[in-house]
Design goal:
Blueprint (H helix, E strand, L loop, with lengths): L1 H18 L28 E5 L2 E5 L2 H10 L8 E5 L6 E3 L4 E3 L11 E3 L9 H10 L6 H8 L2
Antiparallel strand pairs: 1-2, 1-3, 3-4, 5-6
Helix pairs in contact: 2-3
Length: 149
C-alpha cells in the first residue's frame, strides 16, 4: 500500500513538473505583425522589415508596414526598409525593389517585391502612395480594375 501511495505521488509530481509548461525554455515565440497581429510566415514570403529610431519591426505584408508607419507618424523616407524578394528569396532594400501590384499576399494588398526588373512593376514610393490612397487589391473596386473582372 505504501508503494502505491509513493508511486502515485511520484507520477503526480512528474506530471506537474514535466507538463506544467507548454513551452520549453528554448522554444521561440512566433513573430507577429504589429499592424494586423497575424503571425509572420516561416518562408518570409511577402514580409517586410522596418528599422527606425533604433527599433526593428517585422510585418507580414508591405502594406501593413506602410499603414503602421502612417499610424505612428513615422516617415518612411528616413527609415531602413527591407522586403523579402520573391525572385531571390532574400531581404533587399525596399527602395531598390520592383513591386508587382496583383499578387496574392497575406493581407490581399497585392504588392510583391522582386529584385530583378519585371514589366508592370512600381517602385516603393508608389506602393506607399497607393496604400495610403486605398488603391490596392483588398479594395474591391481596385481589384476589379486590376484583374479586369
Amino acid at each position: 500500500m505504501k508503494f502505491f501511495k509513493f508511486f502515485s505521488l511520484f507520477i503526480m509530481l512528474a506530471f506537474a513538473l514535466g507538463c506544467g509548461s507548454s513551452e520549453t525554455p528554448t522554444a521561440q515565440k512566433k513573430e507577429v505583425c504589429p499592424k494586423c497581429n497575424m503571425p509572420l510566415p516561416e518562408s518570409h514570403l511577402h514580409t517586410a522589415k522596418l528599422e527606425a529610431n533604433s527599433k526593428k519591426h517585422s510585418f507580414d505584408d508591405i502594406g501593413c508596414l506602410v499603414l503602421w508607419a502612417k499610424e505612428h507618424n513615422m516617415a518612411l523616407d528616413s527609415a531602413k526598409i527591407e522586403v523579402f524578394s520573391n525572385d531571390t528569396h532574400q531581404y533587399i532594400d525596399a527602395r531598390k525593389a520592383h513591386f508587382s501590384i496583383n499578387e496574392k499576399t497575406p493581407m490581399n494588398y497585392g504588392f510583391a517585391a522582386y529584385e530583378a526588373q519585371k514589366s508592370d512593376t512600381i517602385p516603393m514610393d508608389e506602393v506607399a502612395l497607393k496604400m495610403l490612397r486605398g488603391e490596392h487589391m483588398a479594395n474591391p473596386k481596385i481589384r476589379k480594375q486590376i484583374l479586369g473582372n
